[in-house]
Amino acid sequence: MIPGTEYVIEITYIVAAVLFILALKWLSSPVTARRGVWAGEVGMVLAIAGTLLYRGIVDYKWIAIALVLGAIIGIPLGNVGMTAVPQRTALSHAFGALCVTLVGTAEFYLRAPNVPPFLMSVLSLEVILGGLTVTGSLMAAGKLQEILPQRPITYKGQNFVNLAMLAIAVAIAVRLVLHPEAMVLYPFMVGIALVFGVMMIVPIGGADMPTVISLLNSYAGLSAAAMGFVLNSKLLIVAGSLDGASGFILSVNMSKAMNRSFTNVLFGAFGQVQTSGAAAVEARPVHSATPEEAAAILSAANKVVIVPGYGMAVAQAQHKVRELYDLLTKKGVDVKFGIHPVAGRMPGHMNVLLAEADIPYDKLLDMEEVNADFPQTDVALVIGANDVTNPAARSDVGSPIYGMPILDVDKARTVMVIKRSMNPGFAGIDNPLYYLDNTLMLFGDAKAFVGSIVRELSGGGGHG
Amino acid sequence: MVTADLFNSLYVFILAAFIGFEVIRRVSPLLHTPLMSLTNALDAIAVVGAIILAGEHKSTLATVLGTIAIVAATSNAVGGFIITDRMLKMFKSSRTQKP
Predict the structure, then answer these.
(1) Sheet with A379-383, side-by-side order of all strands
(2) How far is CA B31 from the centre of its chain?
(3) Span A404-413, mean pLDDT?
(4) Does any domain span residue B96?
(5) In the prediction, which pLDDT does A75 show?
(6) Number of structural domains chain B divides into
(7) What pLDDT, on a 0 to 100 scale, did the predictor assign at position A155?
(8) Per-residue confidence (pLDDT) for residue A274, from 0 to 100
(9) What is the pLDDT of residues A292-331, one digit of tens each?
(10) Where are the domains of chain A?
(11) pLDDT at position A431 over 70
(12) What integer pLDDT is reported at residue A462 of this predicted model?
């Protein structure tokens, strides 16, 4: 043991903490963002290398095997398609929380029955948050991957059952804090947290996934920070609180974008179809248009805003949309994209899919920017989005989405909506936008319809 | 002694949370997906705790749990950094893009 190794280890940790903060700081702009990833990687490698110098380590065999195995699993997880990013993210929340829960459990059995009360409190927080995040994230990943049914499953007394479970887990934690020698209770506490994670996600539908993923992100971060308290590791506290803060900010953003509170997302399933309103409006007339007409209107426009939703991603239409963007831009039409915060299945998902299709990021506007533009817009083209364009959110006090901030596409001169049929969207709410006089419905598959418009525009051989 | 550590930890937690809020508030909604995958990758720093557990050999249980925890955290770090970089590579401005 070389004297001074402890200092070397501590210094690698401090440098890593600084690099982690810089990584997130550099993420504030797409220009510097890749430098942020680099900073994170260097910090991680430094911290791991520093830890390996720790003199308490007597055997490196299992560490080496586990590091290699983790890397082998990590590489394919880093190379999934961009549409699968939400479920990959949910899975990584589960892995992160699994690590934290396992370490917490090992620490408990190493120290018990002599666990000081405060340490037992943070350890309980660590494993309860960690445990529910493991199974909750696996459930979310399953729903996103469509292995599990996406629709919310509700039953009578669900909230009571869930809250009671959480209360029991907390009661066990309190008991363990006061009497850590009651070691037999520990597995029950973790077990209940694991079951609670499943039950928490059961009533949540696909459209609420952006909020739920953010919330699970926050839990994963907080459990890691709690682990930092248990191990007295400042670096872990820093990384955990950065992750927790990020998840928290995103959850608040998502809840605001849906005009719902956290508790409402977690305790009020959203997905039941509003049967009352739907039948009455079925007979209302809509205007529809063919690809040729749509192409003519688009090429006559000066300013077009395309509003993509998750439907665009499902139809894999983003590359056709890029062709449309190219053709219109070449004709001198100003084309921008208006993106609602909850479009897609996780925060920012739509931006990634459009960036993948090579659409420049300065054309991707967020809700506030684009809403100021709609009154001067000739055509708003809605592709696979529904509830986020529903004007009932502004005007109809009785609507379940009343008060939710929306993209004001109805203020554009002409609105065109590509939609498979008149079926209501995820939330099952009828959209009055479709019956407006300035709205044209383009019925068909998003990819096929945009493809037909593209053919019309390129075949028509326009005049600059 | 233990209490001193705890209060130090609390200070670090509070300061880091404030820095986190201030830094992350400035991240554009454009990059919220890469933000989540990067913070996830950074969270994998929990691997340092797992490495010590697996290496110290204090009990079989601790070694086994520590080893599994290293696998979980490492796959997060590796996968998280790869996918974040892949996503960020795709974000191009119309000014830098060739016509």
Answers:
(1) A364-366, A334-339, A303-308, A379-383, A414-419, A439-443
(2) 17
(3) 91
(4) no
(5) 96
(6) 1
(7) 80
(8) 38
(9) 999 999 989 999 999 998 888 888 898 999 999 999 999 9
(10) 1-79, 82-267, 284-459
(11) yes
(12) 46
Which residues in chain B have their CB less than 8 angstroms from residue A73's CB? 71, 74-75, 78-79
Q: Closest Cα of chain A to B98: distance in Å?
A: 11
| Residues of A belonging to the active site | 387
pLDDT, residue A277, reads 42
**Record: contact B9-A232, CB cut-off 8 A:** yes
Contact flag A245-B83 (C-beta cutoff 8 Å): no
Task: Find the DSSP H helices in A112-233.
Answer: 117-144, 158-178, 186-201, 209-231
Mean pLDDT of chain A: 88
More confident residue, A268 or A350: A350
Measured CA to CA in angstroms, residue A152 lies from A265, A296, A400 at distances of 12, 42, 16
Name, in order, each residue with C-beta under 8 angstroms of A460's C-beta and a sequence gap of 6 or more: A295, A299
Question: Which is nearest to A220 in space by CA: B37, B58, B53, B14?
Answer: B37
**Mean pLDDT confidence for A65-90:** 94
d(CA A40, CA A48): 12
Q: CA A192, A195, A198 angle in degrees (round to 5)?
A: 150
Identify which of A187, A197, A255 has the alpha carbon closest to the alpha carbon of residue A223: A197
Cβ A57–B51 below 8 Å, yes or no?
Answer: yes
Task: Cis check for the bond before A113: say yes or no (omega within 30 of 0).
Answer: yes
Flag if B50 and A103 touch (Cβ within 8 Å).
yes
Judging contacts by C-beta atoms under 8 Å, the chain B residues touching residue A105 are: 65
pTM, two decimal places: 0.89
* pLDDT value of position A280: 44
How many other CB atoms are there within 10 angstroms of residue A344's CB atom? 26
CA–CA dist A76, A277 (Å, integer): 46
Q: Among positive and negative, which fits the CA dihedral A271, A90, A143, A162?
A: negative
Inter-helix orientation angle A85-111/A61-78, to 10°: 160
User: For A334, phi and psi rounded to 5 degrees?
Assistant: -85, 110
Residues of B in contact with A224 (CB under 8 A): 43, 45-46
Give CA–CA dist A271/A207, Å, rounded: 8
A264 burial class (0-12, 13-18, 19+ CB within 10 angstroms)? middle
Say how far apart CA A81 and CA A341 lie, in whole Å: 21
Domain residue limits at B44: 2-90
Compute the nearest-CA separation of A307 from chain B (Å). Answer: 15
Report the run of H or E that residue B39 belongs to, with start and end: helix B32-43
What's the token pair of residue A388? 């986020």
CATH superfamily placement of domain A284-459: TPP-binding domain (3.40.50.1220)
Contact B49, A236 (CB under 8 A): yes
